[in-house]
Amino acid sequence: MDDFGGIVRGSPVRVARPSCQREVADALWRAARDGLPAAARGSGHSTAGESQAPGGVVIDMRGMRTVHDVGRDHVTVDAGATWREVLDATLPHALTPPVLTDHLDLTVGGTLSAGGVGGTSHVHGTQADNVSALEVVTRQGEIVTCSATRRRGLFDAVRGGMGRHGVITRATLRLVAAPERVLVCTVPCRDAGELVAFQRRVRADHVSGQAKPAEAGWRFEAKAAVFDGTRPPEGVAPSEVERLPYRDFADRMRPDVAELVRLGEWARPHPWAMVLLPAARAAQLIGEVLAGTAVRDVGVSGVVLVKALRIGRVPMLRSPADPVLFGMLRTASPGCRTAAEMAAANRRLHERAAAVGGTPYPAS
Predict the structure, then answer these.
(1) What are the structural domains, with CATH classification, of the chain?
(2) What is the DSSP letter of 82?
(3) pLDDT given at position 216
(4) Domain FAD-binding PCMH-type spans what residues (predicted)?
(5) What is the DSSP pairing of strand 323-329 with strand 303-308?
(6) What's the pLDDT score for residue 89?
(7) Fewest CB atoms less than 10 Å from the CB: which of 80, 108, 286, 312?
């Protein structure tokens, strides 16, 4: 049973497919009784084997994907529901989670366990910052409801905790008014420093950035999106402007994923590395890393992300105070570096990030 990363390989002894919290608790209890490792699996989008348990027990959470209640400012969902399924339930009420992942086919439990970063994280923090309550099955098989005012220690431990302290089975998520349309502005940047500075100063609802291959190294590009706006943010001179319905904007990766599936790139190994860097050191490190990086080092469908963001109180993330996400989302394409070589480059990136006060994302 592989994950999206395609690097860690191994078969579990058994797979549990629970339909309720009690069955999750039973699976964890049996794994502990038999001395076996256990891992919860949503969409299997982990990249370093986190959703696998070679020789152990995998708990497939997709059987628990009901959206239970959409309120005026919240929604309660099972952890196995994807963000696409959440959005399907909330948009008819003109509501949306304040932070969505770029790829909507990830599960709620999976991204809350990682933290959950999106283009609105510079305003709203991570997805884990926007949860009011959780139902969790602890590693001892206890079913617990926790929040900022009830069992706070467990609440803090499972958000961003990568399943080490329990399996999230249900979440109550904050909702905000959904925009009808989105104005997306593309802004070229000279270098990493200008990209980070732009993301820090621009007044936009959604901000993202990438480094893309160019004839002479790399070119940098920011995206600044305004919800229900008619003009670009003040002081922004975009090279391109696009207007999209909110649903199309939220699901903008779907055509790209379909094309990667068609080309076979989606099924190749993905040795991804993401780090949270202190903003004061981010541009220099990003520039140095990319100066020694060619297309064959990231793969033909690889992506380099640069995203200034804000993290609230998610202790398990252990982020720098003013974080910039730097992601080397590598794909081991034919003719490029091997997965093992890319994994070695990721280890060097983590070491360089740690040397300037950075931390891995998700938490290792």
Answers:
(1) 14-61 (3.30.43.10), 63-177 (3.30.465.10), 181-361 (3.40.462.10)
(2) B
(3) 83
(4) 8-178
(5) antiparallel
(6) 98
(7) 312
> Does pLDDT of 191 surpass 80?
yes
User: Under a CB-based contact definition with an 8 Å cutoff, are residues 188 and 251 in contact?
Assistant: no
Which residue type, as a one-letter code, is found at position 74? H
Separation CA 318–CA 306 (nearest Å) = 19
Residue 174 carries which side chain, given as an amino acid letter?
R
Tokens representing residue 9 in the block: 């390989």
User: How far is it, in rounded angstroms, from Cα 269 to Cα 6?
Assistant: 4
Cα–Cα distance between 67 and 163 in angstroms, integer?
A: 22
Instruction: State mean pLDDT over 335-339.
Output: 97
| Pairing of the two strands 74-78 and 176-177 | unpaired
Model confidence at 354: pLDDT above 80: yes
Q: CA 135 to CA 336: how far, in whole Å?
A: 43
**pLDDT value for 363:** 87
Q: Name the residue among 285, 338, 318 with its Cα closest to residue 157.
A: 318
Q: Report residue 65 as tokens.
A: 């994907």
Q: For the chain, what is the mean pLDDT?
A: 95
- The torsion defined by the Cα of 265, 85, 128 and 101, in degrees rounded to 10, comes to 30
How many Cα atoms within 13 Å fall on the side-chain side of residue 51?
24
Average pLDDT over residues 204-222: 94
Confidence band of 1 (pLDDT split at 50, 70, 90): confident
Q: pLDDT over 70 for what percent of the chain?
A: 100
Strands 67-70 and 143-147: unpaired
Mean pLDDT within 310-316: 87
Region 34-60 average pLDDT: 92
Give the β-pairing of 143-147 and 131-137.
antiparallel
From the number of C-beta atoms within 10 Å of its C-beta (0-12, 13-18, 19+), residue 152 rates as exposed
Provide the token pair at 98: 């304040």
Element at 248 (helix H, strand E):
helix 246-250
Residue 176 CA to residue 96 CA, distance in Å, equals 6
